[in-house]
């Protein structure tokens, strides 16, 4: 009688373990399938700062946008009024 109870308990544990493993496989497979067919398109919008010798100046576009071209490199000296970046018009 005790052996039957142990055998039944062993079967129950195996059943739950198999169910848990199957659930994990289905979740990972479903998430992988969703990631494979989902197309993400969007822009990352962030504010930034340019550091100059005299003080910190915050550069920000009032309505946001995507940078199309950058005309300077790090360490370049720039004059007042010089175009540093151009926003993409799309």
Structure summarized in a few sentences:
The protein is an alpha+beta fold and 90 residues long. The chain has one helix and four strands. Strands 1-2 form a two-stranded antiparallel ribbon. The chain has a two-stranded antiparallel ribbon with strand order 3-4.
Describe the structure.
The protein is 40% helix and 17% strand. With 90 residues, it is of the alpha+beta class. It has two domains: 1-41; 48-87, no CATH class. A two-stranded antiparallel ribbon has the order 1-2. A two-stranded antiparallel ribbon has the order 3-4. It is rod-shaped. 0% of the residues are buried.
Features:
90 residues, alpha+beta, 2 domains, two-stranded antiparallel sheet, two-stranded antiparallel ribbon, 1 helix
From the spread of the alpha carbons, the general shape counts as rod-shaped
Terminal CA distance = 78 Å
What number of domains? Answer: 2
Strand order of the largest sheet: 1-2
Count of alpha/pi helices = 1
Number of strands: 4
Give the C-alpha Rg: 30 Å
- Let me know the largest β-sheet: 2 strands, antiparallel
Series of secondary-structure elements, N-terminal to C-terminal: HEEEE
Layout of secondary structure:
Layout: H1 2-37, E1 48-51, E2 56-59, E3 67-70, E4 85-87
Antiparallel strand pairs: 1-2, 3-4
């Amino acid at each position: 009688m005790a052996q039957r109870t142990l055998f039944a308990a062993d079967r129950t544990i195996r059943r739950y373990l198999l169910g848990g493993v199957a659930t994990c496989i289905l979740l990972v497979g479903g998430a992988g399938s969703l990631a494979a067919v989902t197309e993400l398109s969007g822009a990352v919008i962030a504010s930034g700062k340019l550091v100059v010798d005299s003080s910190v100046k915050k550069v920000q576009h009032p309505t946001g946008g995507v940078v199309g071209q950058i005309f300077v490199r790090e360490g370049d000296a720039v004059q007042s009024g010089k175009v540093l970046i151009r926003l993409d018009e799309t």
